[in-house]
Amino acid sequence: MHFPFLFVSTGTERKMKVSFKMNLLLELLGFLLLSEMLFCIAQGNVHYYDFVLKESNFTRLCSTKSMLTVDDSFPGPMIRAHKGDTVYVNVYNQGRYGVTIHWHGIKQPRNPWFDGPEYITQCPISPGTNFTYQVLLSSEEGTVWWHAHSDWTRSSVHGAFVILPAEGTTYPFPKPDGEQVIVFASWYKEDVETLMDEALRSGGLTTLSDAYTINGQPGDFYDCSNETTYRMSVDYGKTYLLRIVNSIMNTDMFVAIADHNLTVVGWDGSYIKPLEVSYIMITPGQTMDVLVTANQSPSYYYMLASPYFDGQADDFDKSITSAIFQYNGNYTPPSIPVYPRNIPGFYDVGAASFYTTKLRSLASPEHPVDVPLNVTTRMFITVSIGMMRCPNDSCSGPDGNRLASSLNNISFANPKLDILEAYYRHISGYYDTNFPDKPPHLFNFTSEDLLTDNVTISDQGTRVKVLNYNETVEITFQGTNVMNSGENHPMHLHGFRFYVVGTGVGNFDNVTDPLTYNLVDPPEANTVPIPKDGWATIRFVASNPGVWFMHCHFDRHMSWGMDTAFIVRNGNTEESTILPPPAYMPPCETDSLYGPRQSMFQKEE
What we know:
By secondary structure, this protein is mainly β. It is 8% helix and 34% strand. Strands 10-9-12-17-14-15 form a 6-stranded mixed beta sheet, with no helix packed on it. The longest helix has 17 residues, at 25-41. The radius of gyration is 23 Å and the shape is globular. The two termini are 44 Å apart.
């Protein structure tokens, strides 16, 4: 019998070392009770990791700051496993405030207890304590990732999660000669939690990042940075698999390598038909698997990640991060690396939409699609930036109000007890099951002159949508231009992978637009961009019982309330029933940032 929670490591995988500690007793009892069940669940190999969360010093942009990281690394350690494996990660919180970890893009079948979003499936892991996550891999294959899911801690607490093909199988493309994880992130000179605290308390705009990074380094175009620019060494004639993760907080990115074509073969942990492009557009939360062949004259070539923004407010970090795609061999290095000539500009809406509409599932016998055709539940969800009233016009948003965001005019409020525990133990008073299937008012969602009035003011609440097991769900997300604030929104759904069957610009037409749906080989994803003043439609089968979060992956929008959750009821068999909870879950005694005080976006009782 394995006890994955009884070992000490530095965050790299290694053999288990048993050390009986009293503060792990509850976890031991829980896993003893569930050992037989877990043995049956684990279809592949079992892996063990330790994550030690603590403050670490980093120097970037000519100054040094302390920030929360895993194992003193930015980005954090990579997890590597095969399709169908089981991974245990023991998180030791040696930081200053509570934290949770989410396994982004991993469905966790019947296992919501370890999904990670705070106040949805658990409460934060308090400082000085630990909690072991059980991560069940199922159909995912390719690159996904993990990150903190409490306040804005994911800015520095994140890393790649590489899921290799199942033992005895291989990639659906020629095996590359090498591979490299590429992680994009945001860099703030100041403490991110302090910045978030100030913005949410005042109700005004959030502070922009000071830089973007590639594998932890800002690159040549920032002060005090060109000596540490990330370099990827390559051999002429070889093909490399880039495992790309966008962990940037609030900005979509265009990505290109000078003079090199990119072949996209994977998106969000599933394969797609190979798509050869000169650039990609990737939103926060998304991952992509990209092949690149080193077939140019040996030299130095810039890899750039440049922001894409389609909103009116123009409030984004307008800097560009760089790495160097560097050939090995004997040649005279250039004084300046070759610069990409075809990377789109900051505001190139056409380039972004052209790229995203080209993605198609592989739809092969080895990697088939199963697009739901008989829809039983249809939802039409407006995605909006708006406001909430402040007493005496005392906030820093427009007209003294608080900036807010919403889904169907509901701005989500965190409860004081996580929704999963309240649901599982039949504890009332912490959430309502009346999240609407459509907005309360129908209007011209993409009008250029929308004002914030009684039609578009957000209503705060902890409202969820309840689904029966195996319901077939179709959601159309409609972007709005309320307050002239329309922009792209990357919507992420926990617990599922869905098919993106359609997308378009303008107001969704429920008669003509469904005629354009791709029901043959739509891409399968966990995060979908909703275009500015446009729409996107997804479909999935509610075959994963539990409580599952859905939110915009721009963290400022998530913090403002662009969230909801689905409760998927149990089916009629043991195989369609939520797994029992572990004996120990982090108690809901404090929240992640404010200690015993309540966040302004927590629900009042």
